[in-house]
Each structure stands twice: as C-alpha cells, then as structure tokens.
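S2.1 Query sequence (Phenylalanine--tRNA ligase beta subunit)
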Amino acid sequence: MLVSYKWLNEYVALDGLTPNDLADKMSVTGIEVEGVTVLEEGLKKIVVGHVVECIDHPDSDHLHICQVDIGEEELSQIVCGAPNVRAGINVIVALPGARIVDNIKIKKSKMRGEVSNGMICSLEEIGYSDSVIPKEYADGIYYLPETAKAGDAVFPYLEMEDALIELSITPNRADALSMRGVAYEVAAIYGKTPTFPAVCVTENDTQATDQLSITIDEKALVPAYQTRIIENVTIAPSPQWLQVRLMNEGIRPINNVVDVTNYILLEYGQPLHAFDADKIGSNQLTVRLAQEQEMLVTLDGEERQLTPENLVITNGTTPIALAGVMGGLDSEITNTTTRVVLEAALFDPISIRRTSKQFNLRSESSARFEKGINQATVNEACDKAAMMIAELANGEVLAGRVIGSSVTVKDTTIDITVERINQYLGTTLTVAEIEQIFADLAFGCEVNEHTFTVSVPPRRWDITIEADLIEEVARIYGYDRLPSTLPSGETVMGTLTQKQRFTRRIRHVLEGAGLTENISYALTTPEKAQQFMYQSSAVTRLDWPMTEDRSALRMNLISGLLDNIAYNTARKNTNVATYEIGRVFYAESGVRPTEETHVAGSLTGNWTEKDWQTKATPVDFYYVKGILDTLVDEFYFDGLVVEQTDQFAELHPGRTAMIKVHDQVIGFIGQVHPTVAKQYGISDTYVFELSLDVLSTLPIKQAYQAVTRFPTVTRDVAFVVDEHVAHTTIVSTIQAVAGRFLKSIHLFDVYQGASIESGSKSMAYSLLFENPEATLTDEEITKAMEKVERALTETLHAVIR
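Output structure tokens follow.
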C-alpha cells in the first residue's frame, strides 16, 4: 500500500511532521513501513516548456525541430522524436546539465546537424513505470496542463515532490488498505481527529429502480450489493490531478469513469465496478454461481471457462463479470458509453480467493475483498463515486439506489477491565489514560468504575475479543514504553532425545566423509516427487500451490539434491558431495500423508584431485558404498547386505543395489541413470537414500568383545560359478552351513578370462574361523569346509577348483 503524504495531509493535519518521522512512528506502532520514496529525488533541472513552433527535421522522417519557451528571453531549440509533439502544448523539458532517470546526464548536442538544447521528456524518462503511463502518452511525450507556466519546475505539477510511504500490511490490518483507514491510524497515533470531505449526490427525478432490477441467488456469498446509475456521461481523459494521483499510487489512468472507481478504491478501500448500461443486454442484473463450462471474456481479452465455484454477475442469462475479480469485456466502459451502472458490493472472501487463484487474476480489488471491507462505508463510497462521475463526466445521477442485498452495520461491543490491561502489559495505566487511548482510536467507550465497555466501529473489523483491545492499547501507548522484566522461575539443563543424538551421529559421520549438508524444499513437482522411490505411495498435491514447481510433497530427498548439483555444475563447480536429512511424505489415495525421516547423499566429479603424485580419481559405486560402510560401522549394525536390483527406472540397472539389514530394506545406493542425469543437466552422479526411522530401530550388536585367548584359523576356497550369481548369494550360502565358528568371509579374487568357460567366473574367498572358548581342531575346520563346498556345488552348481 502506497500512502501519499500530501493526500494524507488533507485528512489529518500533520503540522510539519516529516514523512520519515511519520514512517518511523508507524513502524513502532504496528504497521511496518518498507520505505519512503520521493519521486523527484535524483532528478534536477527539469522544467515546464511551451512548444511555440514545431517543424519536421529536413534530414529525418521522424525527428522534429521544436522552438520551446523555457521561461528565458530567447526560445530554446530542441530536437524531439516523439510522434505526438506539436506546437501549442506544454511539455517536460530536461535542460543541458539535467539529470533524468538512471542518473543520465543531458548535454547540449547535435542531431542530424541540428542543435538540440536539452530534451523533451516522456514520463518514463523521469521515473514513471511504463505500466502506469496513460495509454495515449505511452509512445510519446506527456502534455502538461495549459495553466503550467514555462520555466517552472515540473515536479509540483506532477506531485513528484510528494513522499510516498510504502506500508507492508499484514492480513489482520486490511483496514489500512485505504487512505481513510491510514488517516484514522495516524490520527490515533498523534491524538488528532481526521476530517473527511462531505459527500452530497445531486440526483435527477428519474428513479433508478425503474430502469434496473437486481436478483441475488446466493445471498450468503453476496451480503451486500447495490448499484447507482449515471446517465448522459461523456467519456474523456481524467483531469490531471486525478491522473497524477493514480500514477503516483501505481495505477494507470484509463478514463474519467474508470479512474473514479480506482480513486475510490484507494480512498475508501471499497472496490467498485462500472458497467456500460447499454451493453449489459437487459434491464436486470443477477448474481449467481456460474454454470458448468459457461464462458466469459474478461477485460484482459482472455476467454475463461467458468466452473460452479465461480460467482458471476449476469444480465439474467449471460455472465458479464467475475464478481469481485474482473469485469467482462463486452460491458466495459468505452468512448461511446453514455450510461453507467456503478456497482458496490460485499462478496464472500473465500469465494473471491478461489476464483482469483483459479484464473491467476490477482488485483487490488480481489485482494481487498479477500481480506475484508469496511461494511459501514459501502453506501458512502458508492455515492462519492457517483458524485465524482457526474462532476468529471458531466453526467446525471438517477434518484435512489438499486439494492439487491444489504447488511445491518453495528459496532462490536467488548468489555475489559483496567486490571486486565495492566496485568497483560506490565503497566500501571490509569482509567483516564486508557480512556484517552480509546478516544484517540475513535472507539466509543463507557466507564463503570474500573470496567470499560468499548464500542469498536465496523472500520476495525479485526478487533473482536479482549486481547485485540489490549494490543490496541499497547500500540498507541507505545511498545517502546512498556516496562522490561526478566523471566522468573528455575532453569533446567537441556538434553537431546535419542533420535536427536542418533541424527547428530549421522551428520558427524557424513561430514567426516567430506559431504556437505543441504536443505531442499519439501515441495517439488509431481514428477520429481515420484522418482527414486522404493515403496509405493500416492502423491500428495497442494490444492493452491504458489508455483507449479512446488505443487507436491516430496517422497524422496534425492531429486532435491540433484537440483542442487545441477545448480553447482552450471556454475563450474563439478566436484560436489552433499547430503540431506529431511522428511518425505507417503500417503494412500485420499488419506492424510505420514512423515518419514530419511538421509540421502549425492556425489559427482572427483573425490581426489590430480596433483604431482596422484591421479584424479572419480567417484564410483564403491566409494559411495564405503561411506555407507563407515556409517554402519559407527553404529555397529550387524547383518548388512548390499543386493543388486533393477527396480529403479531412474538408476543404472547394473550399478544399483538395495541395502538391507536383517532382511529389512533400509534404503538403496546406485548411479543416476544417464537419461535422468541428462534431464537434470549433470554428469555421472552416485546417490544413496536411507530411512532413518527404520535405521534407528535396528538392533545394535555389542560394541565390545574380549579378545579371544585361542588362535583363529583361515581357510580359502576357490570355485567357478555362473557369472550371474551375486556375491551376496554366495555369502549367505556359506553362512548358512559353515557353522557357529565362522567369524568372517572375505572375497579376495574374481577372475574371468583364459581357462574359464565363457559365462562363468572364478571366485576366491577367505573364511576366518574362531572359537572363543577352545582351540579349533583340524577335524572341525575340515567338516565345516566340506559343508561349505557341498552347499556351493549343490545349491549354486559351483565347480570347486
């Protein structure tokens, strides 16, 4: 919300108070100020010029040579390329040495051989955005009023010396989304009384109800709806004071009727809409919900397919406007309009919000309907708009309003005691002091001993309970004046939960392995949400996402890490090793999602750099597996199995494995499939993801074991087996029959080539046996090895070598 200091001063006498002082005071009383802008700052030597003569440049098809009166004895020659420059107009002139927007300095120059003493400026060249410049001046220069005096500074004519205070309005203070609302706020802060000009509508003898009727089908969604009718209007540009006021507030002037509705929006916070009465197509307005697949072309020229959730204004049959969001193109105000139907209403905030989000139509009007409207000024805002249209467009206002629905406006009454206020704020305020604060806020107040009965006017619809009143007292009294007190009571030593300790140890191991922690968004695209999943789940989608890229809850952490790798790779950082601990969200269709904590990692590039004695070593599957081995060793988990799998479409089928402990899947490890890596814009990348919720519940084997007093025995076994037999299958086969004295199994050789049949491979294992209670005999070891060899030949069809 941009607040004009000059406009505000028309309602509240600020008595020389500077805009910056006002901004500081408002910030400490509850409405944050983003900044104060004075449009003329940074500009200099820009004056009013009167074009006395304008002729075409002899050596150009678009330049003009102008003789301009700039308030000096002699005319100044300026070459101008604007298509709308002509003799007899007042223009904006930047003199030699002037500074215009972006700190550009204007110099005396020659253009196609003709001297140009400065520059005739457009509004954009002195700082106005192209989006707020009137369309008739969008491609040319701006005409100043005929009363402008040549040589005067331009800034007062455009109110560029005015300070614009930008307010950051929170949803609960939508009353400050209007100049009148801000005036009440400033008056309360400084103990003043705001004054507003009287509204007096001059009506003719024709009754408005004779020309139009209104039917409200959904009164719950339209608590108030009324219209005024203005006849014999002449559509023309608004007077300059109105154009300037709108431009400075960030709104493009259109014409005298539309500009009045925007002016009232800023002044009262009441959205209005003007229909061309002759284009409505009937003498009736019906407000209802749209029918399925009904169509409407809105003012932006887009054809919208409506749904039964959309509230529309119709001519009895056909939609002519999206209620509270945008009007229809067929009934807009144009240069041929002579009769205006002016709409003022209250619409259901939720309905307006849904419609604006559905069609991605966010406007100043819809924002105010969503946050709330002052119900007490709907009539007055409509009357003032009708009065201004009649004045600026030479129209006649028909007698009376056409009312479809209306609300009964009343104050909100809240009782509160002095003791309650002082107890909450830690103050010692007296009855008189609190009564004065309520008077400054323009709240009605009755005092019975130490109890206040406060009447809150409808313009402050955010105040409904006792706590709201206490906040108002604190704001106006001054947060900086509230006493400071230290907390009392005993303190206790903090501690971590078991899961927090477990997570910290995970971080310690991964960061010790050289990985850097990342934090990614929990929201992603539905496609990325379903990647890298080892359990089935429905996608949890947001009904109203902020962007399409953040429309679904993630079901993996890896996609977010790959986005981060892509970001780094695009900036020439090719060696990236990251991890993330975060939550994923699984759900059955139509069921509320459950959260599960995962840890994931992603590595790409080299894990050792090339130097004078070491070759660069790229990350591979076994390097990442080594990190997981270290992680498992940290917690002494027993029974870890890495088992090859091809169930992940996003991972390389020959370089991917499931990770199991005690036959329970805890995650996976693998290389990102080349096609997926190409989609992300990354090179060879290896990833892993584990469920911390499962990992934290696994049994931990005993960390300490006494060193045995008896010797260990090692036996080797080598055999030829089919090349598709996995290492984990061989290990599990040996463990099943080797007996209780088997301590460990170590693979020390794999061979394929000469002397080995095609489609087979030679495997060699070292088996370590240990009896902690006695010395193992050769007979015990031999029996164990015989069982191992028999199992390998019978179960895996191996040939012992």
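The mean pLDDT is 91. The domain at 713-800 is CATH 3.30.70.380 (Alpha-Beta Plaits).
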